[in-house]
Amino acid sequence: MDNVDKEPSMLKQKEMIGAHFDRLAEAPAQGKKVVYTFVPGNLTELLLSFDVLPVYPEINALQSAMRKRSGDFISEAERIGHSEDVCTYVKCDIGMKRSGNIGPTGKPIPKPDLLLLSYTGCFTFLKWFELLREEYDCPVVLLHTPYQADGEITPSMREYMVRQIRSEVIPALEKLTGRAYDEDRLRECLELSRQAEDDMVHVLESAQNRPSPIDAYFGGVFYIGPMFTAFRGTKAAVDYYAMLKQEVDARIARGEGPITPDGPMGPEKYRLVVEGPPNWTHFREFWRMFSEEGAVVVASTYTKVGGVFDFGFRHDPNDPLGTLADYCMGCYTNRSLPQRVEMLASYAKKFSADGILVNSVKSCNSFSAGQLVILREVEKRTGIAGGFIETDLVDARYFSAANVKNRIESYLQMIEQKRSGKTEEVRA
Amino acid sequence: MVDAKQTVTEIVARADALYHDLEFGAVKRWKETHPGGKVIGCLPTYAPRELAHAAGMLPVYLRGAGDQVEIIRGDAYFQSYICQLPRGMIELALSGRLDSFDGFLFPAICDVIRNLSGIWQLHFPDKLARYLDIPQNFDVEVGGRFYAEELRRLLTDFEQLSGQKVSDDALRHSIGVYNTHRRVIQNLMDLRSEKPWLVPADETYLVLRAGDVLPVEEHIEMIKQYLQSVVELERPMRDHSRVVVSGAFCEQPPLGLIRTLERAGCYIVWDDMTISARFIAGDVSTSGDPCVALARAFIEQGVESASVYSCKKKKGSELCETVRKAGAQGVIFAAPSFCDPALLDQPMLQTALDQESIPWTAFKYAENLGQFQVIREQAGTFSDSIRLWGA
Ligand code: SF4
Ligand code: SF4
């Protein structure tokens, strides 16, 4: 968001991220250990309690896309034999590694000392770290998160997770760092997580206001940044969310809408719930297609991939390992399709949405397989208008701007017609 | 000799009819002769069919709609970049072809099958739609314990569906039956690698696929008879290359494609198209807690597969070993389009093969592929190159 006046929270987040990448660049010289792990179901608090630095390959991939580098990286991966058909996050990461592993701040990202494969909500993660394991000569520890197929966490699932954390993950971290597991330190981190989570939920829920002071998808991806990555469990994250909350509350008090890359958004005309990840290669252009039409996203499921907090879950310092297990199992893509439908339908109601739009990304079977059914179910249950667009995460070849814009416009028209009582069906 | 030929012809004809019958007549007939009996449809790759068997149910592997059913409704359920198998499944279900099934089991092999379980829960709420998480932790005390509990939970669901309580002895008996099944299949696989000209790929494939739908006892007899008879035939040994086919463990290639490979000069001496019945190598223990035994076997005797995290051995080492054991000269990677597990696995497997100088070639297919000419040429060139020049 370079073109607009930045709010203090934006500057703070930028500073936090910059400092993290600086620490990473200096890690080898400082003797700090680096652990690669995934965003969904990450064990950041546990990692922080061992004083190691996390790296999230998906974040590298999306940042590469925002810097327009992902195309080259994907080509590089395809050149060495990766199929055109598979998840582009993986290819972007492999290509980036092969091209020197330079991070978003232009500094190199160090090699991992440990690969913590937190395998939550996506099978591709398994393959991704098997691939990374071939690239790096370092130990791997896997945390298998059972899927909530029946919409619940059974005691056996929970026990399985806790046992893995206790008997595999913690010993691996102890071995890596030479430090003993410090449960009190972990509890402190979890308490900080809990505080930040309260404020983040407050921010996401603020979209119930009219106008919504936030865009819970395009803006939302910035708001979840610290929470889903290296900062959950830190004082910096607590401060960031307190600051963000204040700013959002002030916008509500002033009756203002969200701030977009082009400045404050105009009058709110459409309130949407969005399912699916965004496109990163044309992120601003994509956002603009909505904001220019006065469409604001009031709730999104993508902002729940690194944890679902708005239905009451908070990290619990009193049950450190159990809470980590519950957190991982609760992440959005680890939930069954009926749960996802339920969640989207509840968002439609709670946030008084005019429509539900699916952005289906080619890369991600975890999100995408079944989205057409999800859409029809939510439409059926809520009566609101459904729309469907197709893009990709980091592969620009699958972002057809004219086509996407067209579809969004006809979708918004359909909402307009529905509103004015016209029955003609115009399918986005 | 005449008898043997006739027996083989009859067996293959029966297997072929079962393969082509997507109305599942065999399932309906089983239900007629087993009043009140329940049928559970299992998706790929591996389902612990012993549990269903012990509950008096008929477990049936379902592998999409192949190339025989026109997909009319299924395409409205999935985006173009998702593989073909789930569309076929939806088509079969919505067209009423699966009405005689009482439940469905969705093993944890990929996000598509995982999410398909949710579609089933939403669309067919009166049928059991059960997802089975398989462990990715291979410590018997951690992943093994979890999986044994999952199996117990599944068994309870089967008991409820069938209305039949399953004793440990009954389950141990079923394990024993499936041990026999695994053994006869292994005998067939051994013959394939020893004398592939006796057991052509399409025949073997059909005979093995018959086990998707037949009661296990009948399938054991079918394979035994096939083996007994086929060794008596005088089938000419051709100057073919010997290949392993890898990557086709879920959505299946059309039968025409399998025939094409052989016609292009390749004896398929091993493949993972029929890996479901061989997912556990060797016998499962028939003593002690039977769910623990099944869980242990999965962890300790499970084969390398794209859907199982590989931590026991270096990735691809099992494929190299298979190539050696089967006396193959090369590997054909045949994967369904858009199949993340198979396609993400490939570069690692290919590297492992390269390191051992084992030649390979790769192509993609869909279950409803109709044109095989390009693949025929590719396979033919590959076969010639490994046969004539060793690479
Ligand atoms: S398939 Fe989806 S969840 Fe999995 S790594 Fe790719 S983008 Fe992430
Ligand atoms: S073909 Fe591949 S992606 Fe499709 S359902 Fe089977 S394993 Fe999953």
Describe the structure.
The complex is a heterodimer of chains A (428) and B (391). Chain A has two domains: 8-182, Rossmann fold (3-Layer(aba) Sandwich), CATH 3.40.50; 186-427, 3-Layer(aba) Sandwich (Rossmann fold). Chain A has 17 helices and ten strands. Helix content of chain A is 50%, strand content 11%. With 428 residues, chain A is of the alpha/beta class. Chain B has a domain at 12-170: 3-Layer(aba) Sandwich (Rossmann fold). Chain B has 14 helices and eight strands. In chain B, the strands form two sheets. Chain B has a four-stranded parallel β-sheet, sandwiched between helices. In chain B, strands 6-5-7-8 form a four-stranded parallel β-sheet. The longest helix of chain B is centred in the middle third of the chain and has 27 residues, at 168-194. At the A-B interface, helix 6, strand 4, helix 7, helix 14 and helix 15 of A face helix 5, helix 6 and helix 13 of B. The structure holds iron/sulfur cluster (2 copies). The site of one iron/sulfur cluster has 13 residues of chain A, from helix 6 and helix 15.
Summarize, please.
The complex is a heterodimer of chains A (428) and B (391). By secondary structure, chain A is an alpha/beta fold.
- The class by helix and strand makeup of chain A works out as alpha/beta
User: Number of domains in the coordinates of chain A?
Assistant: 2
The chain pair forming the largest interface, with residue counts per chain, is: A-B, 53 and 57 residues
Tell me which CATH architecture of the domain at 12-170 in chain B applies here.
Answer: 3-Layer(aba) Sandwich
**CATH fold category name of the largest domain in chain A:** Rossmann fold
Tell me the layout of helices and strands.
The complex is a heterodimer of chains A (428) and B (391).
Chain A: H1 8-30, E1 34-36, H2 44-49, E2 53-55, H3 57-66, H4 70-79, H5 88-98, E3 114-119, H6 124-135, E4 140-144, H7 155-177, H8 183-205, H9 220-223, H10 225-228, H11 235-254, E5 259-260, E6 263-264, E7 270-275, H12 283-291, E8 295-300, H13 320-330, H14 337-350, E9 355-361, H15 365-368, H16 371-382, E10 385-391, H17 401-419
Helix pairs in contact in A: 1-11, 3-5, 4-5, 7-13, 8-11, 12-17, 14-16
Chain B: H1 2-20, H2 25-33, E1 39-42, H3 49-54, E2 58-61, H4 85-94, E3 103-107, H5 111-123, E4 128-132, H6 140-162, H7 168-194, H8 201-210, H9 216-230, E5 241-246, H10 255-263, E6 266-271, H11 290-301, H12 317-325, E7 330-336, H13 340-355, E8 360-365, H14 373-389
Parallel strand pairs in B: 1-2, 1-3, 3-4, 5-6, 5-7, 7-8
Helix pairs in contact in B: 1-8, 1-9, 6-11, 7-9, 10-14
The complex binds iron/sulfur cluster (SF4) (2 copies).
